């Protein structure tokens, strides 16, 4: 679900069809800046990227006519909606129906924002594309996204100029819904996952943050490098867990949606993609802990 961060920006993950009509969607982290009505999207949450990483692309919402449900236009793309820009349509996929409607509402609200003064627009635009002279700012441009890169083409010349990106990196970040290890996990562990999905975890030694795919089942809380890995990096046994709750260190660590899993030997700090996801993980993990304790108590009483 979209959430508002500490800088009053609307943030969250969506899948975007970067090349129009390609039918291929890629997972991106979106950030809507209400002050300038700019919608930026990144390879991942900027907190998880190297410092100074540029956005993959950007849209000026003041030039968008409408954002609406696109389920009839793209029946095969679940929870799909469209941003109708001045030069093309941008198709995006949400996680579920409620997520889609919330994004549509927030993006439509941003379209109503009054266009900032010319001086503000020039400053923001030159920040996003460094090195441009003042004379270039008066030229009319056609804006489009090609291969995940914002390309602005001067109408009178036809030449293109693209922002920097990591080039080939985006093809490795496929939506979780397209490929899931749940069936593989079931064959390996003998049980179906209680909950699964991507989160960001703090490392034990270097204290760096890395995106991992988590699976919770009746036996443990496992995390993998990606959703297709056969072997978990680590599995935290349910019997070793003491508690799972929202962390009080969110402000200290500068992490939204932070929760912690306490074990006998260590506390794991994990960041969810939204407040709703955080609460869902906490509820699921706490439920698994209580079920395990009840099972142990029953077996002990029977003996």
From TrEMBL:
Residues 156-186 are annotated as: Disordered. CDD domains: PH1_TAPP1_2 (cd13270), PH2_TAPP1_2 (cd13271). Residues 7-112, 192-290 form the PH domain. It holds the Pfam family PH. PANTHER family: PROTEIN OPY1, TANDEM PH DOMAIN CONTAINING PROTEIN. This is Pleckstrin homology domain-containing family A member 1-like. It comes from Saccoglossus kowalevskii. The gene is LOC100369063.
């Amino acid at each position: 679900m979209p959430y508002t961060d500490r800088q009053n920006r609307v943030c969250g993950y969506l899948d975007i069809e970067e090349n129009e009509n390609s039918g291929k969607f890629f997972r991106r982290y979106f950030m809507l800046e209400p002050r300038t009505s700019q919608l930026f999207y990144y390879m991942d949450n900027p907190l998880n990227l190297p410092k100074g990483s540029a956005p993959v692309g950007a849209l000026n919402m003041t030039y968008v006519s409408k954002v609406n449900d696109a389920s009839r236009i793209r029946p095969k793309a679940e929870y799909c909606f469209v941003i109708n820009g001045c030069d093309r349509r941008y198709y995006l996929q949400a996680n579920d129906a409620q997520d889609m409607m919330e994004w549509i509402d927030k993006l439509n609200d941003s379209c109503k924002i009054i266009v900032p003064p010319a001086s503000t627009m020039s400053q923001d635009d030159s920040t996003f594309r460094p090195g441009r002279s003042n004379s270039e700012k008066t030229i009319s441009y056609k804006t489009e996204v090609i291969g995940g890169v914002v390309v602005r083409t001067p109408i009178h010349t036809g030449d293109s100029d693209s922002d920097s990106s990591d080039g080939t990196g985006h093809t490795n970040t496929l939506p979780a819904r397209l490929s899931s290890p749940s069936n593989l996990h079931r064959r390996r562990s003998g049980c179906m996952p209680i909950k699964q999905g991507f989160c960001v975890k703090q490392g034990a030694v270097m204290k760096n943050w890395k995106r991992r795919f988590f699976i919770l089942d009746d036996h443990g809380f496992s995390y993998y490098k990606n959703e297709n890995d056969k072997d978990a990096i680590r599995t935290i046994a349910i019997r070793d867990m003491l508690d799972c709750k929202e962390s009080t260190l969110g402000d200290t660590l500068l992490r939204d949606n932070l929760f912690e899993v306490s074990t006998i030997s260590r506390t794991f700090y994990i960041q969810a993609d939204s407040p709703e996801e955080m609460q869902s993980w906490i509820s699921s993990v706490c439920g698994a802990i209580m079920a395990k304790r009840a099972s142990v108590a029953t077996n002990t009483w029977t003996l």
